[in-house]
Each structure stands twice: as structure tokens, then as C-alpha cells.
Amino acid sequence: MDRSLLRRLWRHRSGRWGALIGLALLLFATVGAFWTPHAPDVPDYADALQSPSAAHPFGTDASGRDMFSRIMEGAHRSIGAALMVLGAVFAIGLVVGTLAGLTGGLTDTVLMRIADVAMTLPGLVLAFAVLGLLGPGFLNLLIALIIADWAWYARLSRSLSLDARRRPHVIAARMAGIPQWRIVLGHILPGVALQVGVVATLALGGMIGAISGFSFLGLGVQPPAAEWGALLAESRLFFSIAPWLLIAPAGAIFLSVLSANLLGNALRDVASPEEA
């Protein structure tokens, strides 16, 4: 992403707000991965279900654990996991799709048939199937989501690569005798990566929601580890007597999805041919 695109993204109101919220959440997650005000996984039953206070801004859960500390500690799992999954499907899809589109022939046929098989089921259904084989767990959830989503990005990358081959500047570079690898790295891959990256950014909010949803169902992070969806699942049992426990994880998920959507929409606007 070049500097001019970053400047246009910052001037875009949605992009600016999305970036500010996203940077705050990333800072929150980074700090929470190394430090929290209280031990997030150590129970203290004497302080169970305490209402919000100066010592516990978001109260305590049924085991007496500080909810603010658990939100902090779970942030790197919720946000980091979504970034890891999208980074993996972006890289796999970009490599597979570009290779298929530029190579053609048998390589293209084999890779795209594999992608077609992976796309025969909806992504969430395939993720449930993979989790059924591997069993619940955070690492298994990440693997399942990568398997469920990579084929769509590969298809998109192939389509964009085929289109890029026919662009005038690529044809001119080929006629000038520039080596094929330089054409791919300098003229085709950057544009394809940018467009696929825009799509991945738009999908970030949905990925955070999917990870939280699977953890809410008990298929992701396992107790006592903290993750926003798992915290929602734990808190819902005490909604009638401690409704404040739901506010923090729900608010964290909402802000992260909002930030991703604002950034994705702004990036789509500033990276479009009309804005470029």
C-alpha cells in the first residue's frame, strides 16, 4: 500500500474513524497480551458477581475473576485470530490463484478443481465439518476457518490475474522484453494483492464475528482462557442478576466489527479506479 493511498484513506472520514478505533483496539489487545490489572484466569469466589466499581470497572464473573482483565486478555485472541486467518487465506489464495491464472494449462485446471471442491459447501458449514473431524479448540478453529475460506480468495486472485495479463502496461512490458518474473512481481502481483486485500479487509468484521460465534458455541477457545465470544457465553447465564457482564464483551465485538467495516468501506472507495 503506497503513501498516496494511505493519505487518501486518512482523509476519508470513515477510514479515519475506522483507523482510530482499530489502533485503539490493537493497542488494547497488545497490552492485554502481556499485562492485565488482575490475573485473568485465577478465580476468587469471595468476589463473585461483583458489580462495576473502581477496582473492577466491568465487575467480576461467577468465579470472581475481573471482567476488565479478561476482556483485555481475550482481545489478542479475538482480533489476532481474525487477522491470522485472513492473513493466511489472503496469502494462500493469492499464491494459488495467481499461479493458476498466469500458468494456465494443467496447473490451472488442477488448482481450480481443488478450489471448486472446497467451495461446494458454504464456508460456515465446511468449518463446522472440519471442527467435527478435528474437535473443538482454538487452533482447530483457525484451521477450519482457513480451509473454509481460502478457495474463494484463490478464485478471485485467478480472475484478477487473468484480467491483469491483458492490461496495456503489462502487454507493453512483455513486448519490451522484460523478464516474466519481473512483470509478475512488478506489474501484476501488486495490483492483484491490493484488490484482494481490500476484499479481505471488508471480511475482517465478519471473521471476528465468526470466531466469536464459534467460541460462543464452545467450539473455539476452551475455559478458562478468555475470548470475547466465550465470555458472552459465560455471561449470558447470569443476565438476570448481573447484566453488566454482557456489556463489555458485546461492546468489544461491536467496536472491532465497526472498525473493520469502516476501514474496509473506506479502502474500497479510495482504491477504486475512480478514486485512484
UniProtKB/TrEMBL annotation:
Statement: the UniProt record of this protein carries the keyword Transmembrane = yes
Principal subcellular localization:
membrane
Compartment annotation: Cell membrane
Q: Which UniProt keywords apply?
A: Cell membrane, Membrane, Peptide transport, Protein transport, Transmembrane, Transmembrane helix, Transport
Report the source organism: Pontivivens ytuae
Family (UniProt): Belongs to the binding-protein-dependent transport system permease family.
Q: What is this protein called?
A: ABC transporter permease
- What InterPro entries does this protein map onto? BP-dependent_transpt_permease, MetI-like, MetI-like_sf
Q: Transmembrane region positions?
A: 79-102, 192-217, 237-258
UniProt entry tagged with the keyword Cytoplasm = no
Classification via Pfam families: BPD_transp_1 (PF00528)
In this chain the ABC transmembrane type-1 domain maps to 79-264
> How does this chain sit within the bilayer?
Multi-pass membrane protein
Superkingdom of the organism of origin = Bacteria
Give the CC-aspect GO terms. Answer: plasma membrane
Q: Which CDD domains match?
A: TM_PBP2
* Gene Ontology biological process terms in this record: peptide transport; protein transport; transmembrane transport
